Amino acid sequence: MDTLTLPSKSSLSRTDSIQSFTVPTSVISSPKATLGSHLARRLVEIGVTDVFSVPGDFNLTLFDHLIDEPGLNLIGCCNELNAGYAADGYARSKGVGACAVTFTVGGLSVLNAIAGAYSENLPLICIVGGPNSNDYGTNRVLHHTIGLPDFSQELRCFQTITCFQAVVNNLEDAHEQIDTAISTALRESKPVYISIACNLPGIPHPTFSHEPVPFALNPKLSNQIGLEAAVEAAAEFLNKAVKPVLVGGPKLRVTAQDISTMLRLGQKTIIFLINNGGYTIEVEIHDGPYNVIKNWNYTALVDAIHNGEGKCWTTKVFCEEELVEAIATATGPKKDSLCFIEVIVHKDDTSKELLEWGSRVSAANSRPPNPQ
């Protein structure tokens, strides 16, 4: 038996501390452990049970090994950006998250989500299925690239928004690179990038039976008194507002596809869509015809995505009384369904504070150049 310092299941809350316990040698040592199974096992050991993914030909073999890990679920998403944001939300809830995409076409698509996780200090493991290890240095032009024989473009992009980058294109240092990346993500509370050559996941190597580079979730202790004071201050601020700040509609257009994923997985989420018919915040900063967009019937969109498969309930509300009734239905008779509530508000339903903020941003953006 070997003793490791690993997070307990309860420590997946970002406010809990680490716990030492004993892991059977069989869990961490297998003479036939492959690179793919090694990575999958490491994810489980740090508390990741769901990896948000989009398949592509460079990561398919790796996905086979992730699926084979009993403690891991591979959650297929509709696009890479959504996978990244799902991993972001998972990290906020559980303490660490993971997404897996394919080389360049997938890696470049997930960048915004990884950058957001970096700015929010979230440990997120971004796994990319990379080119065959034999293709490095051959001057070949591959698909999924920008038409150049240089495979480093994706890596260079990730270097600015991750705290560690591991390009695994040989087996000898794969164990150290993967474990160091994971350890660094947890220690720094930032995203990391791990690229795995597509021909390596199924190959065993003696180093994959080694113990991991030490890692643990750092305790993130909350100041309960300060937290309660902040909640009270926020509530007081909102209660004094002339009208609450409401945003919504256009943002759903980016992520609506993965409502289908939520339905497929039987999620019982309540989604509130605030439909104010356009880009209200931008209007307060600088108005113009570009802030006007074609309004959608969002409930009908979700009904189309539902298509009679799974449990889904949608409604559209126009006043406070209808909203109260909709919430009662969503938390009562329809609590076993995914519930989508579209709230129709006037495009000028804006708080005094937002109006003032818009004026300040507009003034800051329009400052003339300093004299040369």
From TrEMBL:
GO biological process, one term: aromatic amino acid family catabolic process to alcohol via Ehrlich pathway
Keyword Metal-binding attached: yes
CDD domains xref list: TPP_PYR_PDC_IPDC_like
InterPro entries to which the protein is assigned, alphabetical: PDC/IPDC-like, THDP-binding, Thiamin_PyroP_enz_TPP-bd_dom, TPP_PYR_PDC_IPDC-like
Cofactor(s) the protein requires to work: thiamine diphosphate; a metal cation
Quaternary state and interactors: Homotetramer.
Protein name in the entry: pyruvate decarboxylase
Organism: Lupinus angustifolius
